[in-house]
Amino acid sequence: MAYQILGNRSGLRRLIVRGIGVGVLLAAVAIYILGATSDPRLQALKELTLDIAAPVTGVFGAPVRMVRRATDDAGEFLDMAAYNRQLREDIVGLSRWREVALRLEAENAQLRALNKVTLAPRFDYITAQVVGNSGGAFTQSITINAGRAQGVRPGTVVMDGTAAIGRVVALGANAARVVLVTDASSRIPVVLTPGDIRALLIGDNTARPKLQFLSKPGRVSKGQRVLTSNHGGIFPKGLPLGTVDALVDNVVRVAPSADFGRLEFVRLVIERVDLTIDPDAVLIVRPDGEVEQEIPDRDEGDGE
Amino acid sequence: MKAFWLSTLTFALVLASCFLAILLSHVALGVGPVSTPWPRLGIGLVFFWRLHRPGTMTMPLVLVMGLVQDLVLGSIPGAGTLALLVSVLLLDRMMPSLRTMPLPWRWAGFGVFAVMTFALEWVLTSIAYLSFQPFDLVLVQGAMTFLCYPPISISMRQVLRIGRTPRRNFQG
Question: Do the domain assignments include residue B40?
């Protein structure tokens, strides 16, 4: 039988083609399994793709951005009267808040002086341009033109200026992929204020992510602010994410504060790692891992 | 020698057009909200070349294109690739008869192809996330991709005609 197949030239050709087809299918299944389990072996491939695709997408995107700016400008020009009216109303409201902020700032300064506390800024910010988006129904992510060379690290939090929009998941030398809070793989520990309700903000590829595992489900109400809680250590505490929007079929939905329709520039929150203090306050460790100073053991001193 | 250069040129054209289509799908930025799905032009190009140049758009090349699309668009690596490969395999028998048919029939064939690809990717993505993904967005993206096929087909057929001797009208 094998002789017959191999003896026939077209039969052999068909066999080779089928073999290649099966091989290709098996390779695709293996890649899917690796991808679905977020295997780190695909990381190098993702980084390479980012570094190649981001600059090219940036060039292709330039005319699209230009057209968008022109249409935005034209639209704003037509709505100028309405904008002016809205701005006047906002100014009145903000003047009142400015007074409150000034009073609180003075009070804060007084209290800090009393406590002799000097707080060093913990975060640096860098701005990056959005050069591409996933544009897909299966994922919600964007590509930015800042990467490892600019100090971005995996997990770096990304904001649109006022609210957190996501975190860096893949990193190239000069580009990074940011998975948005609306993506199905996004899980962010949050706190709802007022009420101090802890929950998990879970993306499901819709425009409004949902809240789950609420610590006080009965006390959730529309309009509550949703802030990051720093549980898990990736998102710094207190970054605004959105407001509680609606309760549909016992699912609490959140309206993100970020304007995903106008993401052109984003701000990356880079945590400073000048000095790491051991939680037990025994060692002070430099970023290179060397111990700078050892504090004598209290028990030893007490004993003598 | 001429045949070699012609096949090399065709391969370069297939590769370049597919990469360009995938990158253009990634540029969707700025035309609307980030959460709005945009057509996957790469799927249209893979179908077109599998239909008209099956010897160039081979299964290994379909695998490469699917993987590039997944990596560029940030989907689960392999989900779109596997969906694309399975759809190509299932519709391969239909391709020779479609090739000679007029555009509306080829467009309908692409519709079947797109439905299968998106449905399979939806299933594979749902399995990977262990939860059903919103299907309405898939429908929107599938419909947009379907609508994009006629311009792709017309423009690429024009590209294929470059260098060919024009048909003469002997009646006159």
Answer: yes
Query: Is A143 within 8 Å of B74 when comparing Cβ atoms?
Result: yes
Beta strands in chain A (DSSP E): 123-133, 141-144, 157-159, 164-171, 176-180, 187-193, 197-202, 210-212, 225-228, 240-248, 251-256, 265-271, 276-277, 283-285, 291-294
In whole angstroms, what is the distance from residue B144 CA to residue B158 CA? Answer: 22
DSSP H or E segment with residue A49: helix A43-78
As for how many domains chain A has, the answer is 2
Residue B123 lies in a domain: yes
pLDDT in tens, B5-24: 888 888 999 999 999 999 88
Cα Rg of chain B, angstroms: 17
Using CB atoms within 10 Å of the CB of residue A217, give its burial: 0 to 12 exposed, 13 to 18 middle, 19+ buried.
middle
Return the amino acid letter for B97.
S
Q: Residue B5 class from Cβ within 10 Å (0-12 exposed, 13-18 middle, 19+ buried)?
A: exposed
Q: In B1-134, where does DSSP find H-type helix?
A: 2-26, 41-52, 59-73, 79-91, 95-99, 103-129
Count structural domains, chain B: 1
CA A196 from chain centre, in angstroms, equals 23
Q: What single DSSP character describes residue B163?
A: T
Query: pTM above 0.80?
Result: no
Residue A30 counted as domain residue: yes
**B165: in domain:** no
pLDDT, one tens digit per residue, over A145-199 is 889 888 888 888 998 877 889 999 888 888 999 999 988 888 999 999 888 889 9
Chain A residues within 8 A of B34 when measuring between CB atoms: 133, 140, 142, 180, 260-261, 263
Q: For residue B57, count other CB atoms closer than 10 A to its CB.
A: 24
Q: Are B148 and B47 in contact (CB under 8 A)?
A: no
Omega before B102 cis (within 30°)? no
Task: Confirm whether A209 is domain-assigned.
Answer: yes
CB contact under 8 Å between A35 and B70, yes or no, is yes
The alpha carbon of residue A213 and the mean position of all alpha carbons in its chain are separated, in whole angstroms, by 21
In terms of residue numbers, what domain contains B143? 14-26+36-160
- Which of chain B's residues have a Cβ under 8 Å away from the Cβ of A260? 33-35
User: Are A258 and A132 in a shared domain?
Assistant: yes
* A32 chain-B contacts, CB cut-off 8 A: 76-79, 81-82, 124, 128
Nearest to A167 by CA among A244, A78, A267, A90: A267
Residue B4 lies in a domain: no
Domain limits for position A190 = 123-273
